[in-house]
Amino acid sequence: MEYSNSSNADPQSCLEIAMEVHRVVPPPHESTLRKLKTTLKETFFPDDPLRQFKGQPTRKKWVLAAQYIFPILQWGPDYSLKLLKSDVVSGLTIASLAIPQGISYAKLANLPPIVGLYSSFVPPLVYAVLGSSRDLAVGPVSIASLILGSMLTQEVSPVNDPVLFLQLAFTTTFFAGFFQASLGFLRLGFIIDFLSKATLIGFMAGAAIIVSLQQLKALLGITHFTKKMGLVPVLSSVFHNTNEWSWQTILMGSCFLVFLLVARHVSIKKPRLFWVSAGAPLVSVILSTLLVFAFKAQHHGISIIGKLQEGLNPPSWNMLQFHGSHLGLSIKTGIVTGIISLTEGIAVGRTFAALKNYKVDGNKEMMAIGLMNMVGSSTSCYVTTGAFSRSAVNHNAGAKTAVSNIVMSVTVMVTLLFLMPLFQYTPNVVLGAIIVSAVVGLIDIPAACQIWKIDKFDFIVMLCAFFGVIFISVQDGLAIAVGISIFKILLQITRPKTVMLGNIPGTDIFRDVHHYKESMKIPGFLILSIEAPINFANSTYLNERVLRWIEEYEAEDHKKQSSLRFVIFEMSAVSGIDTSGTSFFKELKKTVETKGAELVLVNPLGEVMEKLQKSDETGEFMRPDCLFLTVGEAVATLSATIKV
Amino acid sequence: MEYSNSSNADPQSCLEIAMEVHRVVPPPHESTLRKLKTTLKETFFPDDPLRQFKGQPTRKKWVLAAQYIFPILQWGPDYSLKLLKSDVVSGLTIASLAIPQGISYAKLANLPPIVGLYSSFVPPLVYAVLGSSRDLAVGPVSIASLILGSMLTQEVSPVNDPVLFLQLAFTTTFFAGFFQASLGFLRLGFIIDFLSKATLIGFMAGAAIIVSLQQLKALLGITHFTKKMGLVPVLSSVFHNTNEWSWQTILMGSCFLVFLLVARHVSIKKPRLFWVSAGAPLVSVILSTLLVFAFKAQHHGISIIGKLQEGLNPPSWNMLQFHGSHLGLSIKTGIVTGIISLTEGIAVGRTFAALKNYKVDGNKEMMAIGLMNMVGSSTSCYVTTGAFSRSAVNHNAGAKTAVSNIVMSVTVMVTLLFLMPLFQYTPNVVLGAIIVSAVVGLIDIPAACQIWKIDKFDFIVMLCAFFGVIFISVQDGLAIAVGISIFKILLQITRPKTVMLGNIPGTDIFRDVHHYKESMKIPGFLILSIEAPINFANSTYLNERVLRWIEEYEAEDHKKQSSLRFVIFEMSAVSGIDTSGTSFFKELKKTVETKGAELVLVNPLGEVMEKLQKSDETGEFMRPDCLFLTVGEAVATLSATIKV
Q1: Which residue of A87, A441, A569, B599 has the fewest C-beta atoms within 10 A of its own C-beta?
Q2: Model-level pTM greater than 0.90?
Q3: Domain STAS spans what residues (chains A, B) (predicted)?
Q4: Which of B454, B538, B611 sits opposite A611 (nearest CB)?
Q5: CA separation (Å) from B149 to B115, B121, B146, B223?
Q6: Phi-psi category of residue B576: left, alpha or beta, with phi > 0 → left and psi -120 to 50 → alpha
Q7: Nearest of B309, B293, B308 to residue B425 by alpha carbon
Q8: Which pLDDT band holds residue B557 (cuts at 50, 70, 90)?
Q9: What angle is formed at CA A619 by the lines to CA A617 and CA A621, rounded to 5 degrees?
């Protein structure tokens, strides 16, 4: 109290004090409009995509713009025979994977097998022109197929009403593409960031198990199988139909499953032998088809695909349905499959771009994938994206550019035109084995262990996603995990950390007294650091917490006989403030003063300082004896005042 | 590059370097369980309510516990005649306000007027025993009444089905109380913090306008009035029924409205004359009743309340409906009215507690208000809480303890027992005028201006709440405003600020180069400060943003010919990290190293350091030459290495 009296009596003295130390200055003035512009730019254009256009002549700008929209124009002119050789090898490799997987995944989505091949023909061509990743292998993927199939089956039966089901699948694909392209166009790509790595690992593992369970139908040769997806109904369906199990199917399935898993294992151990796992599915299809054909196994309990029509993708824009009672379902399914396939595509693109040290523009990729699906929806394709497993094979096989997608596409085209009759005798059990061996790779146990080690809460989120997918449903499991992740962020905001700082002896550094045991409290000073923006969600809490700090100080203080003189707030970590935050400081100032102490702020950042200044009619916060640039300077200056 | 070679060649040297400066040490080890305990304690018990029990003898603990649950035991024993005198004066004053307001607000909720008086009798008694605020005047409030009435009217007509409507109102009150008590019991009181001050100001102003518009029915004497709440339907209803306007009603209404508003204005200007505005409603009721009685005005177009039954609250627990088709509506309405009335009650309690320098425990208050409503729901009361206006009158009238609530309650009891017939001739138009004059105070234009001055975004939130309430609906307006507030917090997390630091000449202080114009960049160093926890929602953005910083540095650098050697991250403001955040640092380290530079971390906080350490098998991040306690020390030490 003497201190504040003396400083009131002699205003000169506090100016002198302020001169000795480094002044805290308000940030340079900026108009509201300019601040808004900066904020919008940072929010929507953090990568500053127009940077390269700056200071270029107009003609060059046009070229750059064309290259920006069609990345093929960037690398196309420099394309060489050497690159082509690599791309042909990798293109053929992924085609040998894409054909059996295409057929299998279409069955997973309850669609005719040929739609899977259609989807491996058109979308890769579109992506080759628009996409900026050099390693992405485009085509249908297991999880998006599963979700599309399961969500649409809720309202329409693919068996009783196959045409309507197909129409809804194409409409869903259109909405998925439209949603993806819009996210990219509106620069809202950050929405997919809300699917954290932990969520995805749990989700993928859960989905892999759900997908594998569905394959028990094909692997055991069961004809009456549940339409539900959950763990419980599927297992009960399996064990209530033991009379339908077919030993021939089980034998064949087990043999090929073991073969595929061994091939996978070999390629994981020796990446040079990538072609072992890449070729295994096609080899399995050919071998099993020959076996069935030779032994007429279709008459001995082994179900086969049956006759497939020849020919390229028929147009399907007339099948899109933008009205009717199922529109809501199509949109919902489109958004869920769109976001899931986008997450996979972008993550794959980024992973390989980082490996080869080039950049993939997230928002541009979203537009490319979105347009690819929109085009796909009018050419009899369903949702496609860049698949993890196939892109890895593509990368290992030495793909250099998107030409490998074109090679794959042409191979699929040849298959569609001439080879379709050959698949007539392919047994469904082998397709099931191919799916299981593909999705096994989605269960990433080492990553789960790593998450457990680093962050227990992330592990809980992962488990929620996993069990949610297995026991509730694919989309609900995902929603629960995302909800919990966001709840955690909000909780962190609601309960920001406040720590007490102490002086590290022999320096003017102040650090957390709990973390740095050697740091010492300064008698008469309570130095607190707040580590979050202060806003409506936490100002009440902070008020209570700070009062508790003060009361605890006073309780200790009772023994030490040195009364509290200054409460110093280290504000370096307070990155923002709102009107509730400014009220918090006003109230706190009053409370601290009733305790006979003074509130001192250290290093408020630009925006925080500006708002405190505006909320503060009396200029109380901005008094130079209440505002310092470092804790060290504040303590040094204010200790001197106590002695006076 | 030479630097990292030399340190590899001579590991001794980097140890020496580390010895010169202050070591960054990992925080003291804590088990997961202990950390969980601390986190839970900070989240749910920030005020540490059990602190006072520590170290007390068992008997004392029991006394303290009883006092904790029933605050009346705290102040009751010291109660004196002097305090009683103050409390009687203030109790009678608020009773004179509570009786007309009770009748009016019950009509606002489409309930029989007598329910408003019932609600001013039992709940204040319950609160007096359980509540910890000394100034709260308990009773029905305008906004909760409006919401309850409008939400229930959506499904049940109060005119055609009054008994069911009453049953639903009591059931809603029960759920509101149950929800409030649960929030308190589960220590989830922070949920009401999500209604920020800006949201509340916009919401209150919008609700005041909606409430006033509803009074046009009574003020203009219209008989066929819309059942909707929005601005547009009400105004259209008013101007389509001009033939029903009654000049006698309008004349009487205007006179009393002017009288009430003038009385309000007098009390605002001179708080000593609080009794002018406090007594005005009762005076209006008495005067207008006498006028109607004298002139038989009910036969001249002025509608009156009509016969009211005498007697105390009948029990109503048999009217609570926990099944049936309207259960969902009751629960929903209960949650909305519960949260709104809780917000008002807690805010009022805190405001007056701060004025008189005592503490109100938020969670305990919630339980008190919740229990009060649960008891109320079985004694014919509807939702009640502490009202802003009445508590202010209570405070100004000199209330010292909750006894003023008991005095008010007894006065209301006397009224219920003996005075009800006197209200038979009270005209509805005066009740309308009383409501309008009460809710006018909810429109706080100076606060809105202040918000505009300090924070433009908060202002937008406020406008959303305001226009949402006026044009859409009370509950949707509120939901939109809360949604936008949370979206803003999430956006802040998704796009954390990164700033470049420079050295303030003549010191070892490093600050934002944009804010402190005199600060200088150090050649060869890029010093960045991240001002948010790093998690899944922002790690992708941060990666892009940091790359842009590096590229911008290199572009500048091209001119300066001093290549980038160290990227220093000031981590003091990074309050938390998750698995995505640790991956971000791992990737960033690689990227920085491919650019020929070194990643250096400064002052990572306890939790962040621990997780980085766990995620880092090779010990790369924890090397003493990559980890410093202050930026100044890092730059000093590393500059020396460059010269070597």
Answers
A1: A441
A2: no
A3: 515-638
A4: B454
A5: 13, 21, 5, 18
A6: beta
A7: B293
A8: low
A9: 115
Q: Is the ipTM of this complex over 0.90?
A: no
> Is the same domain home to A422 and A510?
no
- Based on the domain organization, do B414 and B518 belong to the same domain? no
Characterize the bridge pairing of strands B566-570 and B525-530: parallel
Determine how many CB atoms are found less than 10 A away from the CB of residue B513. Answer: 18
Contact A606 B512 (CB under 8 A): yes
Q: Taking Cα atoms as reference points, which of A351, A132, A640, A601 lies closest to residue B587?
A: A351
Chain B nearest C-alpha distance from A21 (Å):
10
* B344 and B222 fall within a common domain: yes
Q: Is the pLDDT of residue A408 over 90?
A: yes
B592 and B468 inside one domain = no
User: How far is B188 from B339, CA to CA, in rounded Å?
Assistant: 12
Cα A467 to Cα A154, A295, A451, A463, A474: the distances in Å are 21, 43, 17, 6, 10
Residue A29 lies in a domain: no
Rounded Cα gap, residues A558 and A552, in angstroms: 10
Q: Closest by alpha carbon to B265, among B440, B110, B474, B431?
A: B440
Instruction: Print the domain residue range for A572.
Output: 2-23+495-643
Whether residue B62 is contained in a domain is answered as: no
pLDDT value at residue B561? 64
pLDDT category of residue B590 using cuts at 50, 70 and 90: confident
Min Cα separation B603/chain A (Å)? 9
Interface test with A, best of B24, B454, B602 (most A CBs within 10 A): B454
Do the Cβ atoms of B605 and A532 come within 8 Å? Answer: no
B400 forms beta bridges with none
Question: Are B120 and B208 contained in the same domain?
Answer: yes
Domain count, chain A: 3
CB contact under 8 A, A548 and B46: yes
What is the Cα–Cα distance from B494 to A541, expressed in whole angstroms?
A: 23
Say which CATH number the domain at B614 has: 3.30.750.24
**Min Cα separation B222/chain A (Å):** 42
**Residue A121 per-residue DSSP state:** T
Residue B304 DSSP class: B
Look at A548 and B48 and tell me if their CB atoms are within 8 Å. Answer: yes
Q: Which two tokens stand for residue B561?
A: 């010919």
Residue with tokens 């949707």: B476
Question: Is B55 a member of any domain?
Answer: no
DSSP string, B143-189: HHHHHHHHHHHTTS-TTT-HHHHHHHHHHHHHHHHHHHHHHHHTT-G
Given B459, B489, B519, which residue is the final one in a domain? B489
Does residue B287 lie within any of the structural domains?
yes
Q: Is a pLDDT exceeding 80 seen at residue B5? A: no
Q: Return the SS3 of A15.
A: helix
List chain A residues with CB under 8 Å of B578. Answer: 196, 198, 454-455, 457-458
Could you read off the pLDDT of B214-235 as tens digits, one per residue?
888 888 888 888 777 788 888 8
Confidence of residue B6 (pLDDT cuts 50, 70, 90): very low
B293 in the same domain as B228: yes
Task: Give SS3 for B525.
Answer: strand
B440 lies in the same domain as B326: yes
Provide the pLDDT for residue A587.
86
CB within 8 A of A325, min separation 6: which ones? none
Structure tokens at B484: 């936008």
- Residues A21, B595: Cα–Cα separation, whole Å: 39
Give the Cα separation of B619 and B599 in Å (integer): 13
Selection from A353, A293, A322 nearest residue A171 by Cα: A322
Query: Residue A535 — pLDDT band, cuts 50, 70, 90?
Result: confident
**Closest listed residue to residue B124, CA positions, set B316, B457, B401, B320:** B401
Collect all residues of chain B within an 8 Å Cβ-Cβ radius of residue A351.
Answer: none
